[in-house]
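Quick one, tokens below. Sequence please?
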């Protein structure tokens, strides 16, 4: 006696399709998250490079009259460099999802020195103007003014941290708790260009 197997393929398909969809959507989410993490890493490195080059705004060290004549423009230029990478061609992330950017005096281990940090937060086109364009970030804390940054040997080290909330794109976010948003963060530290 032979059994009818007409429904076998339908059953197998019904079991395999959800698994295949989970795999495909998982690969898409992983690729997007890695792409955005790489963009954030590039942005922190660019910010640290610019911060190391600008030091304290030029001129003599200190915050007295005549010292650090361009000190007030240092942090906005650093933030502009970070924003330029975050919004550059090929970048697939939204600056609105950047929770904050820290510019801080780094310890020997690269950590933030307590209380010596400048914090910038997202506020669309509300920040200072750099190269004719308003920044999408405004300063919330100024614990490390540019005029006190030391580039005399031994020079201070500057750290840049970008914190970002990744938001899932695929329908997996509705089925896997914790996947809808993932906190990403990257830090780069560079010594200020020293003078002897």
């Amino acid at each position: 006696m032979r059994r009818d197997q007409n429904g076998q393929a339908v059953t197998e398909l019904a079991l395999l399709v959800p698994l295949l969809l989970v795999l495909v959507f998982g690969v898409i989410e992983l690729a997007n998250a890695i792409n955005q993490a790489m963009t954030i890493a590039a942005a922190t490195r660019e910010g640290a490079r610019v911060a190391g080059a600008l030091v304290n705004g030029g001129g003599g060290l200190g915050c007295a009259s005549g010292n650090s004549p361009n000190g007030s423009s240092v942090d906005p230029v650093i933030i502009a460099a970070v924003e330029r990478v975050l919004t550059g061609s090929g970048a697939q992330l939204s600056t609105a999802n950047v929770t904050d950017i820290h510019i801080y005096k780094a310890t020997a281990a690269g950590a933030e020195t307590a209380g010596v940090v400048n914090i910038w937060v997202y506020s669309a086109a509300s920040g200072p103007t750099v190269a004719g364009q308003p920044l999408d970030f405004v300063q919330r804390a100024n614990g490390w003014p540019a005029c006190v940054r030391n580039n005399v040997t031994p020079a201070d080290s500057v750290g840049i941290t970008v914190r970002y909330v990744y938001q899932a794109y695929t329908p997996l976010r509705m089925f896997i708790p914790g996947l809808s948003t993932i906190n990403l963060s990257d830090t780069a530290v560079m010594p200020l260009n020293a003078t002897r």
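Helices lie at 8-54, 71-86, 172-175. Residues 8-191 form one domain.
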